[in-house]
Amino acid sequence: MRSPRSKERARTLFLVLNGKKIGDEALREAIKRVRQEGHRIEIRVTYEAEDSDRYVLEALRQKGVDTIIAAGGDGMVNQIAAALLAHDAPVTTELGIIPMGTANDFATGLGIPTDPWEALQLALCTPAQPIDVGIVNEQVFLNVATGGFGTEMTTKTDEGMKNSLGGLAYAITGITNIGSISSITAVMKARVVSTAQKEERAYSILDKKQGAEDLEEGQKLLEDGSEVEVDGDLLVLAVGNARQAGGGRQLCPQALVDDGHLDVSYVMNIPMEEIPDVLARMGQTLDSGEMLDCFGSMRVKSLTVDCPDGLQVNRDGEPMRAKKLDFSLQPHRLKVHMANKELLVQPSQTLRHGKEVMDRKIKSAATVDRRQQQQTSISRLRTISTVLQQRSWIGFHCVGARSNCRIGS
Question: What residue stretches are annotated with the DAGKc domain (predicted)?
Fold first, then answer.
């Protein structure tokens, strides 16, 4: 086994793998390569949700583990994060991610590569960044908690369709269920920061560079900590620690994972006949991070949503339903390996350096792979050439032999 380069300390990774991905060849090869670099990787495979909790506890009790790696989708990452909080993991505990799910919204937003070896290099080369953890009714979410029509469709989407079509499965389910669209009576109460009042009971988050002088006519900057209330017929709700959900839709395009606040986006009080058109336009604009006029937004310290008929919520791929939802935040509760500094208020000064080291390793490995492929191709061509030459020589003598036989007859 080769030892790591002199500048790179040998590390111990504790990898928790979703059992559905146990046969993934790319992951198998990535683990082999990292071990050849001199690092240690312990692997545990989950088949039930409770397995994640047990393995996280094992990792926390084991001395020398540098990083716990969640290999799976958003739901798997959520399970690992929830277990870390449940077992009161130190805030210095590092979490790495190998995206292997259907949408991988959280990992994609953090800039984590989809290639397993590259994702492992991110965990090995870059410093983990402190991030906030969202809480809803004592349940954890790292990314975005969504409610309303889109969430109902996510819950209804067939597992086999998700495996074969990926994020497209959610869109197909939404289209086929368009006739079942309905709003939900809700009351939202929040304590806001960095938020302006557009009109009565309608709000919008200020851009980081905006101040009171930048507000549009009729808008009013709310004092931080102000209590606001919004009620009516709720169509879409997104409470974001990060930005995207539903297969890349930027539901909370200004959210930061380390600012100590949650970003809330919502659509309320849309006439029934306008809902299909609103949903269609949402699909066209949210991919680019734009917000429709019908969207309201708030940046909050806390949020309470009351729904007499209950609200279906999806938190990092994990479904839940309740009549009352209490949202809060634990600031800087976990440290996560990530590449996208745009989601951070204050990225570590060493993050850029670590990312450069990772990029050089990936580029170097790609060069080596290309050379090996070229050598393999050349070797195959030589083998084929040799075989063809041998067959040509044998064929010539066989023809000669048959000719001789015919001449001698």
Answer: 8-139
What's the confidence (pLDDT) of residue 151? 62
In degrees and rounded to multiples of 5, residue 62 shows phi and psi of -85, 130
Read off the pTM.
Answer: 0.80
Active site residue 318: yes
Q: Half-sphere exposure of 212 toward its Cβ, with a 13 Å CA cutoff?
A: 5
At position 336, the amino acid (one-letter code) is V
Amino acid 222 reads L
- Alpha-carbon distances, residue 343 vs 30, 110, 130 (angstroms): 27, 7, 11
Domain boundaries, the chain: 12-136+338-363, 141-330
The predicted-structure confidence for 31-59, as pLDDT tens digits, reads as follows 999 999 999 999 999 999 899 999 999 99
Residue 4 is classified by DSSP as: P
Look at the block and give the residue holding tokens 């839709």. Answer: 249
Between the two ends of the chain, the Cα-to-Cα distance in Å is 68
Q: What pLDDT is recorded for position 354?
A: 76
At 249-302, the pLDDT tens digits run 888 989 999 999 999 999 888 887 777 777 776 665 555 555 555 678 999 999
Q: Is there a common fold for 12-136+338-363 and 141-330?
A: no
Could you give the CA distance from residue 156 to residue 334 in angstroms, rounded to a whole number?
Answer: 31
Question: Which range among 107-111, 159-163, 246-250, 267-271 has the greatest average pLDDT?
Answer: 107-111
pLDDT value at 122 more than 50: yes
Fold of 12-136+338-363: Rossmann fold (3.40.50)
More confident residue, 238 or 349: 238
The Cα 336–Cα 289 span in angstroms is: 24
Q: Of 50-64, 126-140, 178-192, 369-383, give the lowest mean pLDDT range.
A: 369-383
CA distance 43 to 268: 46
**Set 42, 274, 318, 342: catalytic member:** 318
Gap between the Cα atoms of 85 and 334, Å rounded: 9
Which of 38, 36, 101, 46 is CA-nearest to residue 68? 46
CA distances for 304 relative to 115, 142, 227, 242, 364, angstroms: 39, 18, 11, 19, 50
